[in-house]
Amino acid sequence: MIAKVILAAKSQKLDRIFDYEVPLLLLDQVRLGVRVKVPFGRKNGQMSGYVVALGEESDVPAEKRKEIQSVVDDAPVFSEEGVQLAWWMKQRYFATLTSCLQAITPARANRVRQKKAYALIDSAGAEALLSGIGAKERRQREAAAYFLRQGQATAENARRDGLSSSALTTLVQKGILQTVWLEEQRQLPQAESWEISHPLTLTEEQAKAQQQMLSAKDHRPLLLFGVTGSGKTELYLSAIEHLLSQGKQAIVLTPEIGLTPQLWQRFTQRFGRRVAVTHSRMTQPERLLVWQRAAQGEISVVIGPRSAVFAPFDHLGMIIVDEAHDQSYQSEQTPRYDAREVALWRGEKAGAKVVLGTATPLVGQYQKALEGTYALARLTRRASGGQRPHTEIVDMGEELAQGNATMFSRALRQALMETLHRGEQAMLFLNRRGFATFVSCRRCGYVATCRQCSVAYTYHSRQQELQCHYCGQKAPVPKVCPVCGSKYIKFFGAGTEKVEQQAKRLFPKAHFLRMDRDTTAKKGSYHAILSAFARGEADVLVGTQMIAKGHDFPNVTLVGVMAADLSLYDASYTSAERTFDLLAQVTGRAGRAGQQSRAVIQTYQPEHYAVKCAARGDYEGFYSQEIALRQMMGYPPCGIFFGVLVTAETEEAAVRWSDVLAQAFTARGITVVGPGPAMHKKIENQFRYHVFLKGTDETALRTALWEETAQIDRKARGEVTLRIYTDPQSIV
Ligand code: ADP
Ligand code: ZN
Ligand code: ZN
Fold first, then answer.
1. Is the pLDDT reported for residue 194 higher than 70?
2. R_g of the chain, CA atoms, integer Å
3. Which ligand has its closest atom nearest to the C-alpha of 320?
4. Is the pLDDT of residue 463 over 50?
5. Is 589 helix (H, G, I), strand (E, B) or coil?
6. Could you tell which of 235, 384, 552 is best to mutate to test the pocket of ligand 1, judged by most ligand atoms within 8 Å of the CB?
């Protein structure tokens, strides 16, 4: 028997199948999906590997084949489907098979530890003890009562709960309790409440969408396009309930930040212990436990962020991607997979329906729905009856012209005053993405932009110049606005702290909470701040887009967007789309409970289509303008756009090899953008440059990428590292 083994090596060169002989002794242990130790190379150094197939045949002559040394796992850690998925991911994301298998497989837990515990074996005896009265036996009575309630408890827990260990020993001697050794069961996190909730009567719109979700005839993925509060989550629950009754299983993906205690509670209230949650703060053993329970069919629903898409279900009936437009589905580490694409792949393999739920589809998703590649279900009304907030756009250039140079327009100040006066809450929102600083005119709204790439120039304070982060084009910083001649042209940037300060000065009596990367650095503080605000412990919450998602705040009747511009010019072709999404989300935070509510969007770009359409709640209007722009520029979904990140220890090497790469692509007739420096040109002493490719023939681009990067890998001899991005907007 021959095992086909993938070595756990980082190098692309070793990333292929090696044939190993299975020694007789290991015949029944070597199975597809286990890890093994094998000898490798001239010196036969030991390496780990994954068994991805077993067979009788090999192209390697028998005398050259080496033997597997040992087997690491007693049970497979991935399946045949996992191997196929890994091959697909390798091709699609330019990754090594090993890294793909690692992404699919949770790391192995250490040996299970045994824990001392006590179990009640004589409950009649325990009850008899309870009726005793002697003061000396008080500790024993406590313990008896405890075990009558609990049945069993670890020694550690019993001690924590204040039981005396000598009393426990006595009860063991009396034959009421018994000592047992438990495998250390790591608890899956549990929701606070186990109350059972029941399905609601669906509205007409919802019922139609549900039919589409459960349709056995239509195998297409479904874009569930519904405004916030229209009942998408309710539909997930009812569809999954239906599937569970047929013995099927479901995966629900949410952005990490959208996985609120409320959401989880809604699922546990409907499905009890059949649902498990995963999140990125979980330890490997905890995650492994979820994986094992899923594989054994003990749980039927897994909720979690992108890695939950790999949950090992055999009877997968549905994969739901909530907030399907969210950027966090794109992995930032190798393999840089997109969980939505993996979901579609698994859905097709397993014959499971994939549901993409969102209030603001990506233009690429909506395009597929219009073409008919996806089925489309629309939910246009808020189920709870609340109204869209009355939304107002304020031109900050006009404010300036009228002599108001503060961050608060008169309209926002007035609205805030009224809200506080009524004892209601407000959210002030700074939609900054963090990286780019752009230059704009505060009078007329002009923004310094690279014409060729249609993205804003980024201001570099050290060199005092502007640079395009797509093509590398440089430009001087203008002293006066080239459009209106104003001197109020400067780089744009503002922090939540400054917003809070100014707001406090305007409203000294109000209570404020602030939420940004600084205040949420501590674990758990994100939810702590939001819960405090939900409990009404502050009047105003100031924050970045972190506050746009999750939690319901019924008492919030005003949302203020401090500067819509901040996300409009973050030097990426998806800036307008993200701005529309953020504005729609954040204004949707107000008015959930049906009160009359308001949103104020401050901007220097009151005419920008992303701002105007978001204020009107006009997705179609936004879509048609955005898709026209993508078409014109050849950006996805209207063209293919890939990137290569070139990192090196010296800037000279990074630039030189980027040029070589760019020339090689140009020679193949491919449109090259750049090379240019990455947004962060130097990270951890590595210089970073990138080359972008544009085109329409995906296969040709992919072939060129594989071949040319391999070529440079060989020639550069370790001088540079190349990484291919199928999502170049995430190179920062
Ligand atoms: P979404 O996920 O689209 O934001 P939810 O499913 O959270 O929407 O629904 C918003 C609110 O409306 C929830 O409180 C939910 O319980 C309620 N809701 C949804 N559908 C119905 C319905 N058919 N009847 C009554 N209430 C509903
Ligand atoms: Zn101007
Ligand atoms: Zn450019």
1. no
2. 30
3. 1
4. yes
5. coil
6. 384
**pLDDT of 384 higher than 80:** no
Is beta strand 353-358 parallel, antiparallel or unpaired with respect to 316-322?
parallel
Using an 8 Å Cβ cutoff, are 633 and 426 in contact? no
Q: In the prediction, which pLDDT does 379 show?
A: 94
The CA–CA distances, whole Å, from 630 to 312, 574, 638 equal: 37, 9, 6
For the stretch 694-729, pLDDT in tens is: 999 999 999 999 999 999 988 988 899 999 999 888
Verify whether ligand 1 is closer than 6 Å to residue 262 (CB atom).
Answer: no
Q: Ligand 1: which atom is nearest the Cα of residue 322?
A: 2
3-state DSSP assignment of residue 536: coil
pLDDT at 213 over 50: yes
Residue 37 CA to residue 400 CA, distance in Å, equals 70
Please enumerate in sequence order all residues whose Cβ is within 8 A of that of 469, keeping only pairs 6 or more positions apart, or say none. 436, 455, 458, 571, 676, 677, 678, 679
Is residue 490 within 8 A of residue 469, CB to CB? The reply is no
SS (H, E, C) 549-581: CCCCCCCEEEEEECCCHHHHCCCCCCHHHHHHH
Q: What is the pLDDT of residue 436?
A: 58
Establish whether residue 228 lines the binding site of ligand 1, counting it when its CB lies within 6 angstroms of any ligand atom: yes
Nearest atom in ligand 1 to the alpha carbon of residue 206 is 23
Rounded to the nearest angstrom, the distance between the alpha carbon of 92 and the centre of ligand 3 is 27
Q: Does the beta carbon of 60 sit less than 6 angstroms from any atom of ligand 1?
A: no
Best mutation site among 234, 264, 321, 549 for ligand 1, i.e. most ligand atoms within 8 A of its Cβ? 234
- 177-190: per-residue pLDDT in tens? 988 776 554 444 55
Ligand 3 mean position, distance from CA 471 (Å): 4
When pLDDT is averaged across residues 577-598 and rounded to a whole number, the result is 80
Residue 229 carries which side chain, given as an amino acid letter? Answer: G
Residue 161 has φ and ψ, to the nearest 5°, of -85, 10
pLDDT value of residue 685: 82
Nearest CA to ligand 1 atom 20: 231
- Tens digits of per-residue pLDDT, 394-453? 999 899 889 888 889 999 999 999 999 999 999 998 876 545 578 888 888 888 888 888
**Do the Cβ atoms of 687 and 654 come closer than 8 Å?**
yes
What digits encode the pLDDT tens for the residues 6-46? 998 877 778 889 999 999 999 888 999 889 999 998 888 89
Ligand nearest to the CA of 475: 3
Residue with CA nearest ligand 1 atom 14: 384
User: At a CB cut-off of 8 Å and minimum separation 6, what does 68 contact?
Assistant: 3, 5, 20, 21, 22, 23, 26, 30, 36, 37, 38
pTM of this structure: 0.83
The residue nearest atom 5 of ligand 1, judged by CA position, is: 231
**pLDDT the model gives residue 550:** 58
**If you measure from the C-alpha of residue 384 to the centroid of ligand 1, how many angstroms do you get, rounded to a whole number?**
6
Q: Higher model confidence: residue 158 or residue 384?
A: 158
